[in-house]
Specification:
The chain is α/β, with parallel strands linked by helices. It has 3 domains: 85 residues, Arc Repressor Mutant, subunit A (Orthogonal Bundle), CATH 1.10.10.10; 101 residues, Periplasmic binding protein-like II (D-Maltodextrin-Binding Protein, domain 2, 3-Layer(aba) Sandwich), CATH 3.40.190; 103 residues, 3-Layer(aba) Sandwich (D-Maltodextrin-Binding Protein, domain 2), CATH 3.40.190.10. It is built from 13 helices and 11 strands. The strands form 2 sheets. Strands 3, 4, 5, 6, 7, 8, 9, 10 and 11 form a 9-stranded mixed β-sheet that branches. A two-stranded antiparallel ribbon has the order 1-2. Helix 1 crosses helix 4 and helix 2 packs across helix 3.
Length: 326
């Protein structure tokens, strides 16, 4: 079999049916009848020499070979949509966006921004996220096309990159209340117990060390760990001092057990940036990102399912009557 032997319309029909897991739903997307779709799928199976779906009373379920084919078509058609989107003047959707997020001591504001982006991009597709511990690797993944855009704490540089500062988070030191009560001055604690830092959060560590040096603070020892929760547990037990995002520590409910403080009442502020490739500026995924960046009031409808219901075009007979429910 050669590529010329493949009916690519049938491949596309298969992709939409597999994506929607329904002939009826796919028929609405494609503008052809369910019967026509079913006929084309059967012809495709004859050409390929294997079944792509198990057919039973529950509907269509991908076979092992069908699932393998779907993974290829998924990559192919999503890439195709991105290609068309990059050269078209119309707003195109139908493909998911993937966002790379730098894992840091504070991910609250970063993930909040991603959730706000979901609201702006929802009519065009879904949003996936991926985690990276190293800012250089995260930027490299962006340039290689593994992510549509990224969130990082280091201002990205390069002729191929556009970026914007989207927020800041505030870092403070913390220790057990028992340890704090043993010292007259908080600054003296650093010469008595280790300072616990996340050894993968290089930008944060650089800012923390500089902050200590600016205040002439000598550290007894630095304890490195991959586990931020362990650093907090050790701090709570009086075994070390560590750093926390004030908002995150409130969310985790540790305030009753630990003492939070700044040096000379000067908190450490860490900027948060998002970055994307300049070559994607015309694409709807980037346009919606820039739209969100420049919004004076960000989307806050986190508990409003109406957005997704509207996009999914759920039949009214499947939904409860709001007035009747009240």
């Amino acid at each position: 079999m050669n590529l010329k032997d493949i009916n690519w319309n049938q491949i596309y029909y298969f992709y939409e049916v597999a994506r929607k897991q329904s002939l009826k739903k796919a028929s609405k997307v494609l503008g052809v009848s369910s019967a026509t779709l079913s006929e084309h799928i059967k012809k495709l199976e004859k050409t390929l020499g294997f079944d792509v779906f198990h057919r039973n009373h529950k509907g269509l379920i991908l076979t092992k070979d069908g699932d393998s084919l779907f993974q290829y078509t998924k990559d192919m058609f999503e890439t195709g949509l991105r290609m068309v989107d990059s050269i078209s003047t119309s707003d195109l959707g139908g493909y998911p966006v993937k966002v790379g997020v730098l894992d840091t001591v504070s991910d609250l504001k970063s993930l909040q921004f991603v959730s706000q982006y979901y609201d702006t991009y929802a009519p065009y597709g879904i949003v996936h996220t991926g985690r990276e511990y190293n800012s250089d690797k995260l930027l490299e993944a962006l340039l290689q096309g593994q992510f549509d855009w990224i969130i990082t704490t280091s201002k990205p540089k390069g002729k191929m990159i556009d970026s914007a500062e989207i927020d800041k988070f505030t870092i403070a030191f913390c220790c057990s209340k028992h340890l704090k009560d043993r010292f007259k001055e908080e600054i003296d604690m650093f010469s008595a117990v280790p300072l616990a830092l996340n050894n993968w959060d290089h930008t944060l560590n650089k800012n923390v060390i500089k902050h200590l040096q600016d205040h002439n603070v000598s550290v007894e020892e630095i304890l490195e760990t991959d586990h931020r929760e362990l650093a907090l547990m050790l701090a709570e037990r009086g075994r070390c001092i560590t750093v926390v995002d004030r908002e995150v520590i409130k969310e985790q409910g540790w305030l009753s057990n630990i003492h939070i403080f700044d040096l000379a009442d000067e908190p450490i502020e860490i900027p948060i940036y998002c970055a994307w490739k300049k070559s994607t500026n015309k694409m709807i995924a980037t346009q919606k990102l820039e739209q969100l960046i420049h919004m004076s009031t960000k989307p806050i409808e986190y508990n409003n399912p109406e957005l997704m219901i509207k996009i999914a075009e759920i039949p009214k007979d499947k939904l409860q009557d709001k007035k009747q429910k009240k």
